[in-house]
Structure formats: structure tokens, C-alpha cells
Amino acid sequence: MAASIATVRTVKELRAEVAKWRKAGETVALVPTMGALHAGHLSLIGIAKNHATRIVASIFVNPAQFGPKEDFKRYPRDEAGDLAKLAQAGVDLVYIPHTAEMYPRGFATKVTLPSLTEDLCGAARPNHFEGVATVVTKLLLQCAPDVAVFGEKDYQQLLVIKQVVHDLNIPVQIVPGSIVREEDGLALSSRNGYLSAAERKTAPILHQVLSEAAAALANGEGCDAVTSAGRFKLEGKGFRVDYVAVRDPETLAPLFGPIKGPARVMGAAYLGTTRLIDNVPTAPKNR
Ligand code: AMP
């Protein structure tokens, strides 16, 4: 029989459970997700366990972070499957709020960070990061964990969340998790299920191209040359490229010429209607 797992759907219930743990001197980690869980999400649970004695996972498909023409309605949902995976992974509590719990009638507050969110994914997805920043702020205030774990898969999102936590003095440590990939290099994503069989075969090329760009940068090639070459290769394989960019890994500031320190090579591209994102770290080789 599948292991059962405690679930709560309201802020009040969530806080009551966390308060019991606090009273017993336990520490709490939160892993926010939109469900349709895969091994990437579960790796974050593993990291969370190294940082706290109690683990809360949240599942909330946040309407505020989807654009009007995006995939909110068809986003994969599998609550029963997710709960079985979270039970197996040893999560203590799953928080699954209803939309009305997160955004009751009259809800009016937005968390915005224009400087970090106007380009890269923010350029193609206006208001996306405002939706992310707002919902993550709420989740952190609702659960009040010691630690929250976010994947580097969504690298810009990770930096947005770190900035919000810093700016708003939210007392939580943000811990990053590295990207979990398929054997062929494709970063796991709940959206990979949208890909046709032919698109799925092409999809790992995004990671290949970013990795090649990272290697070229490490060897002293300039940012403009590698991003142009990367874009060209992707377009040649049938991707519609949104961006290929080399950025400062702490600030996301654009970098130019040969890199002098650590950098992040970031890319976003469409295969058919599916938008894929990925990123890889790089640094100059000691020569
Ligand atoms: P999502 O359910 O897409 O909102 O993702 C929930 C969390 O899982 C976010 O912190 C993501 O960055 C992280 N995540 C998604 N895919 C991966 C992956 N392939 N490897 C590691 N973390 C991931």
C-alpha cells in the first residue's frame, strides 16, 4: 500500500502544524512546487533534509505567474501521484492551498523587482516574475521555514527570490539545488511532457549548445561570439530562440568579451509551442 502523507489546505492549518514542530525544537524546510513532480523536485527534498528536521512541500499552480496566452489551464496536474512521490521521499507535510486561500477576494499586493526581471525570461513573460515573487513571499510568510530550497533550473527565479528575501528581511535561508537532467542532458521539467517525439529528440541540443558555449568561454572566447554561435546552432536545429546570454551569476548583469570570472550561460528557446529553459555555469580556465 502507498504510504499516506499529511496534507493541509489552509494557512491556519499549515501554521498549526509548524507551530507544533517549533514547540518540540524542530527546524523546518520548505520546498515550493507547482506539482507534476519529477526527480528534479525530489532532489530538492533531499537537499532540504540536510538542512532541517521537518520538510514541508507545497503544491500550487500559481495563476499569477502565467500570462494570458500561456499554459495555466493545460499545466499538468497529478495530485495523487505527487502525494505518493512526496510520501516516498519522506516529506512530513504537503501544503496544497486553493486559489482562493492564496488570493482571496480583494487581494491587492504585488511584489515587483523591475531591475532583475525586465530581461531574459522576464522580457518574454511580462508579469511572470511579479507573480513568482508575490506567491513565494506569501508561501515563506505562511510557512515561516528556516530554509527554502529552489532549483537552479530556474536561475533567474532563484536570484529574484534571494533578492526579495534580502530586501524584505524575510528570515529564511535560500538554498539552491543543481539541475537534474535526463541521460541525454535535457533538464527535467514538468513541461517536457508537451514535447512531441521528434521535439523530444531535438530538445537536449539546448543543453549541448549551452555547454559548448560554456567551454568556449572557459577557453577565452568572447561572450558575443559564443552567444551568436549558440543562437545560430539552435536555429539550425529548428528551435525558435528567445535568448542565449552570458550573465554575471550573482547579479545577472550582461558580460562582454572574454570572461574574467565565473559566469552563467543561459538560454531559452521554443520547440513548437513548448518553451524550454536551461543554464550552465562556467569560469575562465587558469592559463
Ligand atoms: P516548478 O514546479 O516548475 O515550479 O519547480 C519547483 C522547483 O523545482 C523550482 O525551485 C525549480 O527550479 C525546481 N526544479 C524544476 N526542475 C528542476 C530540475 N530539473 N532540477 C532541479 N530543480 C528543478
Notes on the structure:
The N and C termini lie far apart (58 Å). By secondary structure, this protein is of the alpha/beta class. A hairpin with a 2-residue loop joins strand 8 (263-271) and strand 9 (274-282). It is globular, with a radius of gyration of 19 Å. It has helices at residues 11-23, 39-49, 79-88, 99-102, 114-117, 121-124, 128-143, 155-167, 197-202, 205-218, 223-236; strands at residues 6-8, 28-33, 54-59, 93-95, 147-151, 173-177, 240-247, 263-271, 274-282. The model has no long low-confidence stretch (mean pLDDT 97). It has eleven helices and nine strands. It has two domains: 7-177, 3-Layer(aba) Sandwich (Rossmann fold), CATH 3.40.50; 190-282, 2-Layer Sandwich (Pantoate--beta-alanine Ligase, Chain: A,domain 2), CATH 3.30.1300. Bound molecules: adenosine monophosphate. Adenosine monophosphate is lined by residues 33-34, 40-41, 43-44, 150-151, 153-154, 177, 179-180, 187-190.
